[in-house]
Amino acid sequence: MILKAKERGNAPQLARYLMTMRDNDHVELHDVRGFISDDLLEAFHEADAVARGTRCKNHLFSMSFNPPAGANPSIDDFERAIEQVENKLGLAGQPRAIVFHEKDGRRHAHAVWSRIDADRMRAINLSHYKTKLRDVSRQLYLEHGWAMPRGLEDRRLRDPLGFTREEWQQARRAGVDPKELKAVFQAVWQASDSRAAFEQALKERGFWLARGDRRGFVAVDYRGETYAIARYSGVKARDVAAKLGDAQELRPMDEVKAEIAAGMTAKLQEFIKEAERNAARRSLQIDFRKAEITGRHQQERKALTESQEQRWQAETRRRAERLPKGVSGIWHRITGRYAKLKAENEREALDALRRDRTEKDVLVTRQIEERQVVQRDIQAQRQAAQQELMRLREDVAHYMQHDRHAPDHAPDRKRERAQRSRRRRGFDL
User: Fold this and answer.
1) Burial call 284-310: b when 16+ CB within 10 Å, e when fewer
2) 186 burial level (CB within 10 Å; 0-12, 13-18, 19+)
3) Which residues contact 162 (CB under 8 A, 6 or more apart)?
4) Contact 204, 394 (CB under 8 A)
């Protein structure tokens, strides 16, 4: 599993984030340990209250446990992984909460511990926790026989297309997968040996090189979004300066944006809006399909939970009826039979708990597998939309460079746009 962790405060905000359904298909509060309340928000308020007795601000240790794509670990697998982490970091026995999230046919877990040792009223020191978690992550990959990511084998081989939250949000505004954006910049960077070649290759893909306000070299697209060259190309700032020279020789970012805006003729703007409407329509169709299957899965889980609850109550009543009361109960205690009946009831209750968990795990696994089949289809649709948006950027650059100066080719452009329109319709759900 990929393990990500952070020391943090603001427990109520974290509780609300963990229980939100905004980006998730399913959210389940699995376990709350060491708190008075079983409600996550109230439990985290308790953690905040205890931390006020110390000077520790980042009194929570928050982690996510992400299995590799295609793997469907059970609840027991997640719990064992969480126990390995808390034993490795010295958090065993600390107040803890576990929340499961499911999204796009994959299930992952969040575990949050209080770092405050209530007996000593001091925060537990988690020195070198990233190194320790990397060791646990490697061990989990080996135990489950999963293909280990290159970055875990050697830190120098980490995914160069990794992106930050800021980059993800920027890509979402532009309607493009952040990995695809980074792949474009990195391919252009590797294929260019000079600033002129780099600038031309960027322009062919719908990006204009400019001088940024804070960053030296940036790229600007037709929407006015700005991309830092070093960050998106995956290189250091000094390497950018060595290849591209002095950023002061470039035009300012605002001037480039103004030129792009001036070149966006009414016809070109209409073409852009049409392509973006098509992408938005695909997105709505995908959202509808996801909502339909998510709603059905939620109903199936609700029905199973209600059925298990009714069965549990009936079995609990039967176990309680076995225990004798009154004088007979006293006699059974004296003879030791009461203790035997009680132990038998406890074993049956534990077996019933395991049975219910297994039934739920089977249902969730089946639903995840069904969701993964749908997700592969959805992913294909999204990739088609991403490719169309990337082609749009190239079309914008081509139009601005050539079409304004070649009015005799209007019939050819009309045929090209008709072909693009037919291609887009071919990707519809």
Assistant:
1) eebeeebeebbeebeeebeebeeebee
2) middle
3) none
4) yes
pLDDT in tens, the chain (429 residues): 889 999 999 899 999 999 987 778 899 999 999 999 999 999 999 999 999 989 899 999 999 999 988 788 888 999 999 999 999 999 999 999 999 999 888 899 999 999 999 888 999 999 899 999 999 998 898 888 888 776 665 554 445 445 566 665 666 666 666 777 888 888 889 988 898 999 888 888 888 899 887 668 999 887 788 888 988 888 888 888 888 888 888 888 888 888 877 776 666 667 777 777 877 787 787 778 888 888 899 899 999 999 999 999 999 988 888 888 887 878 777 888 878 888 888 999 999 998 998 899 899 888 888 888 888 887 787 777 777 767 766 766 765 665 545 444 444 544 555 555 554 444 443
Number of H helices, E strands in the chain: 15, 10
Distance in angstroms (rounded) separating the CA atoms of residues 329 and 340: 13
What is d(CA 100, CA 79) in angstroms, rounded to the nearest whole number? 11
- Torsion sign over Cα 151, 155, 156, 161: positive
Domains and their CATH numbers in the chain: 2-157 (3.30.930.30), 165-257 (no CATH), 267-315+354-423 (no CATH)
3-state SS class at 293: helix
Q: Which residues contact 335 (CB under 8 A, 6 or more apart)?
A: none
Q: What is the C-alpha to C-alpha distance for residues 212 and 255, in angstroms, rounded to an integer?
A: 11
Q: What share of the chain is helix, strand, coil (3-state, %, to 5)?
A: 65, 15, 25
**Is residue 26 left, alpha or beta, with left meaning phi > 0 and alpha meaning psi from -120 to 50?**
beta
Which helix (H) or strand (E) segment holds residue 220: the answer is strand 217-220
Three-point CA angle 112, 114, 107, nearest 5°: 5
- Encoded tokens for 99: 């929340």
Question: For residue 353, is it left (φ>0), alpha (ψ between -120 and 50) or beta?
Answer: alpha
Contact 105, 375 (CB under 8 A): yes
Cα distance between residue 12 and residue 297, in whole Å: 29
Q: How far is Cα of residue 112 from the mean position of the Cα atoms in its chain?
A: 17
